[in-house]
Amino acid sequence: MPKRILQGRVTSDANAQTVTVSVERRFKHPVLQKTIRKSKKYRAHDENNAFKVGDTVRIIECAPKSKTKRWEVLEA
């Protein structure tokens, strides 16, 4: 099964080797036909603390690294 790759914006880099990435998805409401934006935050592993708040990054699924980290940063 292929690993999912998502793109989002770094919202926090306060923790060591971890960044919080906010991923936004857009879809059309089934009844109202209005475009809706929903976002979800993912905690991703950043080995070298290379990414800062505001950077746009791509993250990929991985084996669990901690209680909340199941993603790692692929590239900027």
Description:
The protein is mainly beta. The protein has a single domain (5-75), classed as Beta Barrel (OB fold (Dihydrolipoamide Acetyltransferase, E2P)), CATH 2.40.50. It has strands at residues 5-12, 18-28, 35-45, 56-61, 71-75. Strands 1-2-3-5-4 form a five-stranded mixed beta barrel. The protein starts with a strand and ends with a strand.
> What percentage of residues falls in helices of 4 or more residues?
under 10%
Mean pLDDT: 96
As laid out across the biggest beta sheet, the strand order is 1-2-3-5-4
Percentage of residues in DSSP E strands: over 45%
Low-confidence stretches: none
Could you give me the name of the CATH homologous superfamily? Nucleic acid-binding proteins
CATH architecture: Beta Barrel
The number of strands is 5
CATH topology: OB fold (Dihydrolipoamide Acetyltransferase, E2P)
Q: Sheet bearing the most strands, described?
A: 5 strands, mixed, barrel
Rough shape?
Answer: globular
Output the number of helix runs: 0
**Termini Cα gap:** 24 Å
Quick one: CATH class?
Mainly Beta
